[in-house]
Amino acid sequence: MNDVIATTALTKRFGRVTAVDGVDLHVTAGVRFGLLGPNGSGKTTLVRMLLGLVHPTSGSVELLGQAMPRHSAAVLPRVGALVENPAAWPHLSGRANLRLLDAAGKGGRMRDRKARVEDVLARVGLAGVDRRPVKAYSLGMRQRLGIAAALLRSPELLLLDEPSNGLDPRGIGEMRGLLLALNASGVTVVLSSHLLSEVEALCTRVGVMDAGRLVLAEDLDVLRSPTGNVRVRTPDPASVVGLLDGQVVHRDGDALLVRADDAGALNARLVAAGVRVTELAAERRSLEQVVLELTGSSSDRIDASRTAAPRTGVPR
Length: 316
Known about the structure:
Blueprint: E1 3-14, E2 17-23, E3 26-28, E4 32-36, H1 43-50, E5 58-63, E6 66-68, H2 72-75, E7 79-82, H3 94-104, H4 110-123, H5 139-151, E8 157-161, H6 169-184, E9 188-193, H7 196-202, E10 205-210, E11 213-219, H8 220-223, E12 226-233, H9 237-243, E13 248-252, E14 255-259, H10 263-272, E15 279-284, H11 287-295
Parallel strand pairs: 4-9, 4-10, 7-8, 8-9
Antiparallel strand pairs: 1-2, 1-3, 1-5, 5-6, 10-11, 12-14, 12-15, 13-14
Helix pairs in contact: 3-4, 3-5, 4-5
C-alpha cells in the first residue's frame, strides 16, 4: 500500500527547544492511525508540519505522495484537518461559516454548495442548528462544526488533533462512528490524542511520541498480543499451585497468574485434574501499559519536593 504520510528525519526547533526530533513516520492509505503522547510531546507541532502550517528546521514531509509545503496548493484540497481550536468567524452562524469555507474551496453552483453544507452538518449532528452566532456555541458544538469543516471537501485524508475535545460521552461515540464509516469508505484517518481510550477504541495502528521523538509505531493488535501468562480464577487456588508447581507467577485470593502459552491446553489440564475453573483468559498488555512504559518519565506534573528538569518539548 502507498504511504499517505511519509516523513524523514523531521525536526523542528524553536530556539533552544527541540519540539520534534528526527521523526520518521509512515502512514499507509486506508488505516486508522492514532498518534499518542503526553502533553508537550510534540504531537501538535508534528501535525502542523504535515499540513505546512509550520516549516521544519530540517528533514522532509510528503503528504499524499507530494512534498510539503512545496505542493500544498495541490495537496491540501484533498485533506481535511482540525488542529487545536476550530477556526470560525464568531459573529456568523455555523451554517454561514461552512458556506463561506465551501465557496473558497470547491466553489461551484450555489445549490451544490448548500447541499454539501447540509450534508456535513447532518453528519456531525448539527442538522438542526439555528442562526445563532458561533460565539454563542458550546465547546462541543464548536468541535462538531470544526469536524464538519474538515469534511467539506470529501477528503482522502483526515488529520484531526484532539477531535473529542469538548464532546460529551454521547458525542464521542457519535464521532467515533462517523470516523469508522469514513474509513470504511476509503478515507485514511489520523488522529492525535492524549486519550488512550479514544485511540484504543478507534485505531488500527498506533504511534507514540515522547519528548519530540517517535518512540513507537506499531499495529495495535501486535502491541496487545498475549504476554505468555494466563489469568485463572478458581475456588480452589491451592490445588492449582500444587498442580502447576513453578508456573504460578502471582496469587491474589482466588485469582492466579499462570505462565502458559496455550490457555486452552491449560484449561484442559486443570479440568482433567478435577480443578473447577470459573474464569480463564490469556493476559494481554493494555495500550496504557505500553504507553506508560515508553513515556514513563514524561509528565506535565511539577512536585514541590523536586526541581523540574529541563524539558526538550514545547507545551503542544
